[in-house]
Design a protein that fits this description.
heterodimer, A: 134 residues, alpha/beta, Transcription Regulator spoIIAA, 5 helices, 46% helix, B: 278 residues, Globin-like, 2 domains, four-stranded mixed β-sheet, 11 helices, rod-shaped
């Protein structure tokens, strides 16, 4: 059984899925990620699936669930790097991953979260004292 | 067909080769609207004639080893004619036209042999017909593919902005190609915006709308935003009449509007040099 590593970059958690996930791996990832979001108080989660050639409905639903769970924990989830073939398959399956934000690659995913953070009230929490300047 | 009984037939076909060929060529020429240059047809027929002769000599069923060369020649002939726009009748009757000259030169007591030759020629004619149809088929297939590729260009309008001008009808096969090309280009160019322009789409029904929505959702999954533009007034009315919902997908009347919208979103402002905004 594989553990998917979760990296913390500043205020954001980065998960790069490099192997085809078994259902159990997906469940573990969901658990680990929820724990880490709470531990670190992260405000953003970037999930890189550029190495995945196969995404079935189970993984699709897991991504939706992770996004929903993170949202409850006050973190935005961005799924990045989905391959064209995977996107077409998901659409044909009728899965549009509602509630999941997407970006082309990790870089634009990080930028997307950063832009959300900078124009929200998170700035108070992220940079103590920032609010005092106004 | 026993070779011995064919002796006389082959004999007279060999001895009067030139005469039969000339008559044959004249008959073929008479049955065709579009004339080909004389040496071309002549050499084609004479090599076919020799191949048939040796095929008959070797005991000739059309599927047999001895008729291999005949089949190859007929193949070539049918393919060439299919491409040049001959009708199937013209192509097949070129083969059938061999009967008359041979019949004219045979004494009546060789009628039985002629009937067998005639049967063989019928088979050859049918074979020509089949190859002709197959050739047409392959021409049509390759044209369809070319049309698919031609009709789905993905163009770059701006850094990070792609446009797909759709022309013609939008069926499942087209949508598949459009979707694949668009998504691949999104990845290759790292573009975050795509405009699907349907100015050239003849009609939009629920199925076409479904295809468009699929493409937009697939692009969204990859992290790119899609806009649908080029909606003509009649199309807009049809869409409303059919109750098609584009949901939260932005739709614009023209490609220009769509490009302006995308540039705004990307943080660009289009400003006239004297400072006036457009």
């Amino acid at each position: 059984m594989e553990r998917i590593p979760i990296y913390k970059i500043g205020d954001i958690l980065l998960v790069s899925i490099q192997i085809d996930l078994q259902d159990q791996d997906a469940m573990n990832l969901q658990d680990d990620l929820s724990n880490r979001v709470v531990e670190t108080g992260a405000h953003g989660v970037v999930i890189d699936i550029s190495a995945l050639e196969l995404v079935d409905s189970f993984i699709g639903r897991m991504l939706s669930t992770i996004a929903a769970v993170s949202r409850v924990l006050d973190a935005r989830t961005v799924v990045v790097g989905m391959r064209p073939a995977v996107a077409i398959t998901l659409v044909e399956l009728g899965l549009s991953l509602p509630g999941v934000e997407t970006a082309l690659d990790v870089e634009s995913g990080l930028a997307l979260i950063a832009s959300h953070l900078s124009d929200s009230e998170f700035i108070d929490a992220a940079v103590p004292g920032a609010a005092l300047d106004d | 067909m026993v070779a011995a009984t064919n002796g006389a037939l082959i004999g007279s076909m060999t001895s009067d080769r030139e005469g039969i060929l000339a008559d044959w060529e004249a008959a073929v020429r008479g049955s065709q609207r579009t004339g080909r240059s004389s040496p071309d047809l002549q050499s084609e027929l004479s090599s076919l004639y020799d191949a048939i002769l040796s095929g008959v000599g070797s005991g000739g069923d059309i599927r047999s080893e001895g008729m291999g060369e005949v089949r190859a020649l007929l193949n070539e002939m049918s393919f060439a004619r299919a491409r040049q726009g001959y009708t199937p009748t013209e192509t097949a009757s070129a083969v059938f036209a061999l009967k008359e000259p041979v019949r004219g030169r045979l004494p009546d007591q060789q009628m039985a042999e002629f009937v067998e030759l005639s049967t063989l020629i019928d088979q050859l004619g049918l074979f020509t017909f089949e190859t002709f149809a197959a050739a047409r088929e392959s021409v049509i297939m390759s044209q369809t593919e070319q049309l698919l590729e031609l009709s789905t260009p993905v163009v770059k309008l701006w850094d990070g902005v792609l446009a797909v001008p759709l022309v013609g009808t939008l069926d499942s096969a087209r949508t598949q190609v459009v979707m694949e090309t668009l998504l691949q280009t999104l990845v290759d160019t790292g573009s975050a915006h795509a405009i699907i322009d349907i100015t050239g789409v003849a009609a939009v029904d629920t199925q076409v709308a479904q295809h468009l929505l699929k493409t937009v959702v697939a692009a969204r999954l990859m992290g790119a935003e899609c806009i649908i533009s080029g909606i003509r007034p009649q199309i807009a009315q049809t869409v409303v009449a059919l109750g098609i919902e584009f949901g939260d997908i932005p739709t614009k009347a023209t490609l220009a509007d769509a490009l302006r919208h995308v540039l705004r979103q990307a943080g660009f402002d289009i400003v006239r040099r004297n400072g006036e905004r457009s």
